[in-house]
Amino acid sequence: MSRTPTMSRRHLLAAAAVAPFASMADVSPAFAPSDGAAFVLVHGAWHGGWCWKRLAPLLRVKGHTALTPTMTGLGERSHLLTPEVNLETHIMDIVAVVECEDLQRVVLVGHSYGGMVVTGVAARIANRLSHIVYLDAFFPEDGKALKDYAPIPPTRADGWRIPPAGTPQDFGVKNQDDIAWVARRLGDQPLRTFTQPVRAPAETIAPSKQHFIQCTQISWFAEAAQRGQRRGSRVHDLLTAGHDAMITEPTALAKILLEGLPPNDGK
């Protein structure tokens, strides 16, 4: 018989906030709530931690931790944007969160450009990870940069700030209120995050612990998922969502994250 855990005030508030969403789908956790996982959700280029606003409560209500850090120079940290901010800066942003919070059994989720970041993070703190999830994301090989997989959009006149490469609609957002909400929050991306290579030996984390959620047919994300699958990773399809699945289909995405990942077997 399963045991119902005692919920903290934070979890009770989260439950009340997402009750209308939770009733829409049967989202059964792959991790028992008593063994709650720590989800660290890493946003993509031009975004910020704000983009997980709808997804994170759906994970918390099931007894898991869900952290949504914003990387340096983006979102509410846009005042820290400088030409020196690079991929290494963002990798250390996430490593610092995991270490300072002393997280274990981490499910590291990287969206889009965030795939570059989580790959570098995994190389530093693989012992703290349970799974790594590439959400319509880049899956870099050791020594390669984002520019090796996709063309870099033009910078502004200063030569180092890259404005958003598309509108919210280009990211798959269709609801008019959501379009306005996303448009107000997208910000410039520093060039060096796209040009600095990642250092990530292939043996950092086992393919069985890597998952790909494909949300579009964009060539570089489709190629990443196919390459992961060839290595033995599992690919989940959410092709109805568009690129920003955490905004457009948070319930379906939560269902994959909670049901699609097998419990950590310690290997």
Task: Give the helix level as a range of percent.
Answer: 25-40%
Instruction: Please identify the structural class as seen in this structure.
Output: alpha/beta
Strand order of the largest sheet: 2-1-3-4-7-8
Order of helices and strands: HEHEHEHEEHEHEHEHH
Distance between the termini: 26 Å
* Stretches with pLDDT under 50, minimum 5 residues: 1-34
Indicate the radius of gyration in whole angstroms: 18 Å
Multimeric state of these chains? single chain
Q: What name is given to the CATH topology? A: Rossmann fold
Compute the average pLDDT.
88
Largest sheet: 6 strands, parallel
Q: Can you tell me the CATH superfamily?
A: Alpha/Beta hydrolase fold, catalytic domain
Structure described in brief:
The chain has 267 residues and is α/β, with parallel strands linked by helices.
Characterization of the model:
With 267 residues, the protein is α/β, with parallel strands linked by helices. The protein has a single domain, classed as 3-Layer(aba) Sandwich (Rossmann fold). It is built from nine helices and eight strands. Helix 7 links the parallel strand 7 and strand 8. The relative contact order is 0.17.
